[in-house]
Amino acid sequence: MLKEIREATKIKDSIIMGDFNYPHIDWIHATSGREAEIKFLSGLNECFLEQLVQEPTRGEAILDLVLSGGQDQVQEITITGLLGNSDHNIITFNIPVVGRTPQQSSTLAFNFKKRNCTKMRRLVKQKLKGTVTRAKSLKAAWKLFKDTIIEAQLKCIPQIKKHSKRPKKESPWLNHHVKEAVRDKKVSFKKWKSNPSEINRTEHKHCQIKCKNIIRKAKKDFEEQLAKNSKRNNKMFLKYIRSSKPAKKPVGPLDDGAIKGAIKDDKAIEEKLNDFFASVFTAEDVGEIPKSAPSFVGDESEELSRIEVSLEEVLEQIEKLNVNKSPGSDGIHPRVLKELKWEIAQLLSVVCNLSLKSASVPNDWKIANVTPIFKKGSRGDPGNYRPVSLTSVPGKLVETIVKNKIVNHVEEHNLLDKSQHGFCKGKSCLTNLLGYVYTTKLVRTNVR
Questions:
Q1: Nearest 10 degrees: Cα torsion 311, 316, 319, 325
Q2: Torsion on CA atoms 124, 129, 135, 141, rounded to nearest 10
Q3: What is the mean pLDDT of each run of 10 residues along the chain (448 residues)?
Q4: What distance, in Å, lies between the first and last C-alpha atoms of the chain?
Q5: Pairs from 185-193 (Cβ < 8 Å, separation ≥ 24)
Q6: 90 φ, ψ to 5°?
Q7: CA neighbor of 400 nearest in space, from 327, 333, 323, 317
Q8: Omega of the bond leading into 102 within 30 degrees of 0 (cis)
Q9: Bridge partners of 256?
Q10: Angle CA(330)–CA(344)–CA(231) in degrees, nearest 5?
């Protein structure tokens, strides 16, 4: 052990701590009557190490030590209560360090708590007054829609800096009952240390058990309430789960051919992942799509030859938007769309119909912010990352409207066979397997 301590002291500003279990050493005079303890004290003197704990850490003995060789390297050592079910006390101390000044993140986020909805609606009404019906092309209509929303967001919603590393906050379950119990426990511990009687020890033990039970109850109540609200607002639920997990590991470094871990630069990692995701994308040959036998038996007037989006359908989909979701690359936030639904619904319906009529979509709907999510295996292999795309909110809204119209038409006219289970509402792999097993049993019964 002394050999390991000598090796450790070769490292600059090293601090050694732990349970050394030397109960008979008098640390005030640095003496002992036992051979092993005298040898240990001699070894510390040879390494110029100072033992800084001066209060008992277990019963009346100092077993847990903090060894330091530098002056003022360790400050404000205090002994507090017991650590969980252990019979050793907690040692807390400060290590003064000079660190790097953290780089301030330039990312800005909207502070919706201070938004001015009245001003935002008034601005949008003034800008769109008399211009909606004059938008004849998809490009012009989308530019008017996007510019109006972005201008309203910037003028009526203040922005705050989004720091990548925020100061650690208190635990969300830490209520006033918990704080009071922790305070009582600390007071009873100090009282016991100043007057080590059996009455004071029993009182401290009682406070310790009470504090533990209150903390457990506070955690349980908070997590139960969080689980109940998870469907309505899963953002808080996921935030709490992330805070309980270890630190998030970065993407990469990626392997470059035979050389492992060669790509470390962020820009190079982005390019490598982008090339890989693009290489596995399947471009369908639309010229060789097989033709299915016609199964529509309705009148010509009932055919779905043209899709038109109404104002009511746009309002319905805007109302269903989740305001806690993030905006796409166009910067249009779903919360803003919901706040301005009566002002912008008509223009958005015009954009939808022009898009369907021209068989094209705005360029902003084709752009996505892609985040690589690690699955499993080696972090250096680009194939072990799954791309998650964040696309335009109005673009997804139009997709939903078109999808609903197609699905409703297919269901009304029974254009799908009963054996179709994939991509059908209320059906899945499980229903497919159950149907197969049931049919197989019927066939076997008939054969018998």
A1: -100
A2: 0
A3: 84 85 85 87 84 85 85 80 81 76 65 89 88 82 92 90 61 88 89 86 89 91 88 79 70 70 80 88 77 70 80 92 88 92 90 90 91 85 88 92 88 81 85 85 66
A4: 80
A5: 185/81, 185/210, 185/211, 186/80, 186/81, 189/80, 189/81, 193/55, 193/79
A6: -85, 135
A7: 317
A8: no
A9: 259
A10: 70
Residues in the chain: 448
Q: How far apart are CA 353 and CA 345, in angstroms?
A: 12
Residue 163, token pair as written in the block: 């720091």
Q: What is residue 95's three-state secondary structure?
A: coil
pTM: 0.62
According to DSSP, the β-strands at 159-161 and 254-256 are unpaired
What are the distances in angstroms from CA 8 to CA 2, 50, 71, 135? 10, 14, 17, 75
Instruction: Extract the runs of DSSP E, i.e. beta strands, from 189-326.
Output: 254-256, 259-263
Distances (CA, A) of 53 to 17, 59, 78: 10, 14, 8
Among 426, 366, 358, residue whose Cα is nearest residue 396: 366
At 169, which amino acid appears? K
**What is the number of alpha carbons within 13 Å of residue 309 lying toward its C-beta?**
26
Structure-block tokens of residue 215: 């903390």
CA angle 439, 440, 443 (to 5 degrees): 85
Q: How far apart are CA 408 and CA 404, in angstroms?
A: 6
Angle at 396 between CA 395 and CA 401, to 5 degrees: 100
Cα 212 to Cα 178: distance, rounded to the nearest angstrom: 9
Pair of tokens at residue 49:
């190490």
The torsion defined by the Cα of 63, 67, 73 and 76, in degrees rounded to 10, comes to: 10
Please provide residue 81's backbone torsions phi and psi, each rounded to the nearest 5 degrees: -70, -175
Helix (H) or strand (E) holding 19: strand 15-19
CB distance 391 to 328 below 8 Å: yes
